[in-house]
Write a structure and sequence with these properties.
458 residues; Polyamine Oxidase, Chain A, domain 2; Guanine Nucleotide Dissociation Inhibitor, domain 1; five-stranded parallel β-sheet; 19 strands; 34% helix; binds flavin-adenine dinucleotide
């Protein structure tokens, strides 16, 4: 266990920062979280309008997210969030939706648009996974570096065929990150297949932001505290030096000294804040992480559009600007009022990239027209709509990102051996998702604990 004498500052109260802080406090450290904004949650954001929870991000979890579900329990909000509400996954093919949830190899030929011959080729996938073995481990993305040589598009077409790629592999792997399969690394698909294939997707009753608010209750969190600088305090005893954190709060500059700092901000902010303590290689790697934009149209409905919670994925080949639609009927005590409904439209990556420069009315019009081809009954039930555009929503996991993560981990480990106690974490080091950010934060806490424990051992 760490000693509560040992102080750790966590910069950033998003999912990664709060999961790191929670884990460190559990291990006995004295933790202070500093958050620049007035609220915690970072990119996990939602608003409540007329009783509807509107979210630019869909809070889809799955039975594979065991670690996150265990945390919900640990934070003490089990009764608010669980049981998860089952989510049916369907897919659009030639303007018709059908359920698409393969759980075994026998289900692939039933996916609309997939040629039966190419579906048969899926027997290769479990074989490939066995061959890759330990190289595919969700919590250790650095182990996949040697497989990070091809895009999902090239890999899918070559091994399984274009109809399999377009109608299952790409929508499955990019439903959370919505990247371009010709740039997304095949490792991203392989990791998701290993983790999520056969798992059941589901929705929590409450917005995930509430989980982060609840986690803060047991932590020392300073909001409106923007960290400006980190500096080393030189020690002459040969011991690792401590770090001075300088931050602004209530228009005053403040400072405090800690034994370790976890930077749980975006990669670019980490490169800037850690400028004096990180190596040049780390700064360059962090600064080169690319982010993708996202566009979401959240619709409050005066009646449910479907009797089940349902996600409709729209493969790129459909020529529709929508990437996915989440339909959710209301529920007593849930995120949407009982008897009403919600629809969340997510633009696909190509449209999202263009939409950053389009007027809001044009985007709304484009997406609503496209919705008529996906779920024609929704339009007549719209009460009101909110459009969300986020320019830097997701770190991209294009070909080369896993090799970059492996290098970053190696260089950070080398620096740690010299006694440096600065750590970087966030979704960009694991996976562009809730669970990615959560696991990355917990892993950073493990590194801090391993290093400080050594120091506290006589
Ligand atoms: C529109 C949108 C839709 C999404 N949809 C999904 C989805 O459907 N499913 C899914 O799994 N994931 C989704 N995601 C991704 C998910 O939200 C992120 O992967 C995750 O929230 C990232 O958490 P993080 O802690 O790594 O980073 P962040 O949430 O960005 O947290 C970083 C924090 O650091 C703070 N900070 C930065 N600089 C400083 C400073 N100098 N001092 C103090 N604090 C600072 C920021 O204010 C922020 O709070 C979506 C994201 C967006 C934006």
């Amino acid at each position: 266990m760490g000693s509560s004498e040992q102080k750790v500052a966590v910069v950033g109260a998003g999912m990664a920062g709060l999961s790191a802080a929670w884990e460190l406090r559990k291990r006995g450290f004295s933790v202070t979280v500093l958050e620049r904004d007035a609220r915690v949650g970072g990119r996990a954001w939602s608003e409540t309008v007329e009783g509807f929870t509107l979210e630019p991000l869909s809070p889809i979890l799955s039975t594979a997210d065991r670690e996150l579900l265990a945390w919900i329990d640990e934070v003490g909000v089990r009764d608010d969030f669980l049981p998860l509400r089952p989510l049916l996954v369907s897919q659009l093919h030639r303007n018709k939706t059908s359920a698409v949830e393969p759980r075994s190899l026998f289900d692939f030929p039933r996916i609309p648009g997939v040629s039966p011959r190419q579906a048969l080729r899926m027997v290769r996938l479990p074989r490939l996974m066995r061959r890759y073995g330990d190289q595919i481990c969700f919590e250790a993305p650095e182990r996949s570096a040697d497989l990070d040589d091809r895009s999902l598009g090239d890999f899918g077409r070559l091994y399984f065929g274009a109809t399999m790629l377009d109608n299952w592999m790409a929508p499955f792997a990019t439903s959370t990150s919505l990247g371009d399969e010709n740039e997304t690394s095949r490792v991203h698909f392989l990791r998701h297949y290993a983790r999520c294939f056969g798992a059941r997707p589901a929705l929590p009753r409450m917005p995930l932001r509430n989980l982060l608010d609840a986690a803060c209750q047991g932590l020392a969190v300073l909001t409106r505290a923007e960290v400006r600088d980190l500096g080393r305090v030189e020690s002459n005893s040969g011991q690792p030096s401590s770090i001075i954190v300088t931050y602004d709060r209530e228009e005053r500059e403040r400072m405090f000294e800690v034994d370790a700092v976890v930077l749980a901000t975006s990669a670019k902010a980490a490169a800037r804040l850690g400028a004096k303590l990180l190596t040049t290689a780390e700064r360059e790697m962090l600064a080169s992480v690319r982010y993708a934009p996202t566009v979401t149209l959240a619709l409050a409905l005066c009646r449910p559009a479907s009797w089940h919670a349902q996600e409709i994925r729209v493969p790129h080949g459909e020529g529709n600007p929508i990437g996915s639609v989440l339909l959710e009927p209301g529920q007593v005590g849930g995120r949407i009022p009982d008897g009403l409904g919600a629809a969340t439209l997510r633009a696909n990556h190509a449209y999202a990239a263009r939409a950053m420069d389009l007027p809001e009315e044009t985007i709304e019009k484009d997406l609503l027209e496209a919705l008529d081809r996906v779920a024609p009954t929704v339009r007549g039930a719209i009460d009101f709509a909110r459009l969300y555009r986020v320019e830097r929503a997701w770190p991209r996991f294009d070909v080369g990102q896993y090799r970059a993560i492996a290098r970053l981990t190696r260089v950070e480990d080398d620096r740690r051996r010299t006694g440096s106690r600065l750590y970087t974490t966030g979704d960009y080091r694991m996976d562009p998702s809730w669970i990615g950010a959560f696991l990355a934060g917990r892993q950073a806490a493990g590194r801090v604990a391993a290093d400080l424990r050594v120091r506290s051992t006589p």
